[in-house]
# Entry
Amino acid sequence: MHRIEPPAASIYDEMLGADLSVRPHYDEFLRWLNQQSADTLAQRRQEAELLFHRVGITFAVYGDNPDAERLIPFDTIPRILPAGEWRTLEAGLRQRVTALNAFLHDIYHEGHILKAGLIPAEQVLANAQYQTAMRGVNLPHGIYSHISGVDVIRHNDGQYYVLEDNLRVPSGVSYMLENRKMMMRLFPELFARHAVAPVEHYPSLLLDTLRHATHADNPTVVVLTPGHFNSAYFEHAFLAQQMGVELVEGRDLFVRNERVYMRTTAGHKQVDVIYRRVDDVFLDPLAFRPDSMLGVPGLLAAYRAGNVVLANAIGTGVADDKSIYPYVPDMVRFYLSEEPLLNNVPTWQCRNPSELSHVLAHLDELVVKEVHGAGGYGMLIGPKASRAEIDDFRARLIADPANYIAQPTLALSTCPTFVEEGIAPRHIDLRPFVLAGKDVKIVPGGLARVALQRGSLVVNSSQGGGTKDAWVLEA
# Structure
């Protein structure tokens, strides 16, 4: 029997209850785990690392040596969710992404929610992610975010909370797929003992979503990548290969008569849908940054004319900006006339003087984030910060309060994880991927990210976090 370090008494653990009893959905897994020798498990973990290297599943981190790539640590103890819990989570995700798409359509058209005063107009219209070029542009089916990655955590009250909505170019789905493939290869007997819902059909669902994003018959779909120096290049190539579509860079495309064409060995071919993994400002040097070498001159004009679909749409970033996040429950009520099924984390907006005063008085207790920040960068975790770090952030907040929000330090749930000391609880989140097309579809599970350092709440791979397979049990 393996010794599993018990979780902290105040933290919700995914496998063990407060009295250290095993949660029912982990019963069978723990029985299996206790039948495995430590040497066998160590050998399987080494095999996984070797295979990930061989396949090329690496993650480049900006600021590292440009030729250096990092393997994202993979843990072989899965995060398991029972079927009923997943159904509740799935319904909340579907509701949330539907409301966010309605919000995006509204703010680029009539602006009803702004006129109703539910969200301050200047917070949207003056937002750096708001693209005036999208005003009045009608998109097929009114879909702006075709692919959304919603980060959810479980607090010590046992409830799920949405930490953030990723609607621009959410990444990580390739690791979700490869983690499952790896677990099935290393431990096939586990899948004979558990009815685990499949995730391997995600590429076909993604391709269906992209094809339904346009009114064109038999559309040509491509994946647009910034190139192999991008941190997520492996994923771009992987998804293109899995969908059976071309992976292109900006130089492979050109615009003629407001239509986009791809250069091929057989001549020029019109492109109908671009799954773009390039940020807004680099998409078209004629419309945004003139120094961009990643985009396609004239792409915006072709897009505005309705001759090509971009997934996700230009201007979606305003809806996943952290200053807009506090209003998502209001969006659900406003557009859907429903109560939100998923909780938001309480949030203080530092742009408001009274809320800024509260944050400055409690910096050592709060998490402070840049409104445009991502990847775990540009944030303060008060309880873990030094006095110098807190003083530095205090100065930043006073100098530019509108650039920050603050939230209570939530106790992310833990999940048993293999670490150097053995098996110990480590904090974890989950990023399900939501596809909005003809219907809203979600593969059961998502990318489970785990903070590998004891006590750390930062799960981002760019900050040294690892990943796990996420299982949704079918019964």
Remarks:
- The chain has three domains: 1-188+318-343+412-475, 215-307, 346-408.
